[in-house]
Amino acid sequence: MKMHNFCAGPSILPKVVTEQLARSVVDHEGMGLSLLELSHRSDTFVKIISEAKSLLLELMGLDAEEYETLYLTGGASTQFYQVPFNLLNEGQTAAYLDTGRWSAKAIKEAKHFGNVAIVGSAANSGYDHIPKADFSRLEEPPAYLHITTNNTVSGSQIHEQISAPCPIVADMSSDILSKPMGDLSGHGLIYAGAQKNIGPAGTTIVIVKKSLLGKVDRAIPTMIDYRTHVKNLMFNTPPVISIYGCLLTLRWVKEQGLEQIQKNNAAKAALLYEEIDRNPLFRALVKEGSRSLMNVTFDLVEGYADRSESFLQLAAEAGCMALAGHRSVGGFRASLYNALPLESVAALVEVMQAFTAKHG
Amino acid sequence: MKMHNFCAGPSILPKVVTEQLARSVVDHEGMGLSLLELSHRSDTFVKIISEAKSLLLELMGLDAEEYETLYLTGGASTQFYQVPFNLLNEGQTAAYLDTGRWSAKAIKEAKHFGNVAIVGSAANSGYDHIPKADFSRLEEPPAYLHITTNNTVSGSQIHEQISAPCPIVADMSSDILSKPMGDLSGHGLIYAGAQKNIGPAGTTIVIVKKSLLGKVDRAIPTMIDYRTHVKNLMFNTPPVISIYGCLLTLRWVKEQGLEQIQKNNAAKAALLYEEIDRNPLFRALVKEGSRSLMNVTFDLVEGYADRSESFLQLAAEAGCMALAGHRSVGGFRASLYNALPLESVAALVEVMQAFTAKHG
Question: What are the phi and psi torsion angles at A129 (to 5°)?
């Protein structure tokens, strides 16, 4: 049976990526050695990480003079404290836009280091929309504004460019490179766990404006200091296989082109949201205008809540997997990352129609 | 040509491991999906990480009631600050045995958090031996004693059990599971980058005595707090592929048996050190009694220094790769991790003899 993988992350990867990765795990480019057995200081891997760095910057449309790309580890969850450790002085204020579960986690960690001003929050309405950022109560510009561009759990996404009186720090874990990235010049730092649109789990991308670093008073342990990784191509052994997976995925992204990827993603999301809005048994969880193109959250309408399992069962029989909503939200979630084909969404829509024909 | 991989890490892995990994990267156990595309919360991966945790503890001979195994990221370099962040109060003293480059790095990071007492150092003699630990100058027992059991760069290894008036924290990155681990009950925390004897790069093993945690006064950011990872099987997305690689390697270790692995490692090291001591053109860099069975460091004798490149060239022609010493030491280094067969060492010895026949 053809599987339709709606996993929220780790998630579907282009087949050319997994196939090339598998070949390299056995014998990398005919060297007679697995990529896993090579020194990270070998010419082979130095070329891989160097290309992964420059290609990411190119696809983001950022300038290598101003910005540095890092392949770190520890996930976005590590960035929640690494960002304020490096960018927020004690006594200083950072602004946070509270758009979902991950924003809230970032806010919690920032409080270890300085003051946090919540300049907008959708917490009271179950994160069903993107709130406006309001800086009017702040007496002076904050150290930075932290945003989460796409909210994997609740299923909302920032669609309008946010302007701020300070550098923007953006957690782009779940929508990075899902479209042309536009003007990022207001961004001081961008981070993303790789395991959605960028590659396999195991590495975290950080893109940092170099001029922002070195401005806090506290001493920073070496590994958590961004400057360590800006200065050293590899300060210590990086997650070799994950970085190679990212490089292969980035090459695939470049080959597709971000405009084409955006078109595909828009078509997939439109197909699914149209069915959700049309089908009398389903409802979307996020308001129009804030809906995510990457993670579509929906549920059965009132009175049908006890049939969730039947729906998931029917979906599974059609090869549609990983559709249960996040445990904190419930309902359903279909993640439509770059590598998911339109036919998978079509298969899901068919399942929804079959379900309604049976239960409606 | 058969390759003989003397890489210091990432390094040689058992062939059964790379072959199974490659299969899973394409299609994990016939599921029709790559292991890289599966949610870390899937039953499939929960089973993998659970077995990886319990098998490691079993091989270490430690009790699951007392100790917890964690698969973290960031390498041993992250442990250099995570250990004192969690275990060393401000004003308190931690003891460090300075046995090499990595010990020195660990010492540097600990100073961010409390006082450091160096209870023994071999820095003044180029780390050519393991110094004794002397606690007599300390007025009270330190928070912990930090040791590096094997020194990958200089090529020394602790062969005698160290006793301390406090819990031992051990960086075992380069000799963990290279032999039966003996009595580890005095250890409060053990850590190791995976990329030598445990698996591919990308994950760091931490084994922690649970009763040691929660005793420092400072607030600890969530991700760097060991308790977060003790409480949650997976707090965030872990490096899936690296952990699966560890599980496969640990299964291989169990199948071989640690006694047999120790015998093999002893035979490999003996063969190489005998040649170094016997051959008039070579000399060992570490004193007898402190020599590492994992990383054998050696050089040409005086007067032959300008022929280093010729030796490396001759070795390369015989398929013996990655023999250049660490850039801070020079000379040669042959890493003889568990997966390296005796025949590779024999091939290297042949090269040394051929070199001497030509240049001696």
Answer: -160, 170
Task: Name the one residue in this structure whose structure tokens are 């250990």.
Answer: B83
Write the ipTM: 0.97
d(CA B246, CA B75): 14
The helix (run of H) or strand (run of E) holding residue A320 is strand A320-321
List the beta bridge partners of residue A299.
A283
In this predicted structure, what is the pLDDT of residue A322? 96
Tell me what the mean pLDDT of segment A312-341 comes to. 96
Does A81 sit within 8 Å of B237, measured CB to CB? no
* Buried/exposed B45-66: b ≥16 CB within 10 Å, e otherwise: beebbeebbebbbebbebeeee
Cβ count near B304 (within 10 Å): 19
Residue B235 with chain A: CB contacts under 8 Å: 77
pLDDT in tens, B165-218: 999 999 999 999 999 999 999 999 999 999 999 999 999 999 999 999 999 999
Is the CB of residue A34 less than 8 Å from the CB of residue A24? yes
Residue B313 touches chain A, beta carbons under 8 Å: no
The confidence score (pLDDT) of residue B137 equals 95
- One of A53, A98, A175, A196 is an active-site residue; which one? A196
Q: Which domains does chain A have, with CATH numbers?
A: 4-10+257-359 (3.90.1150.10), 15-255 (3.40.640.10)
How many residues can be counted in chain B? 360
Report d(CA A329, CA A335) in Å as an integer.
Answer: 15
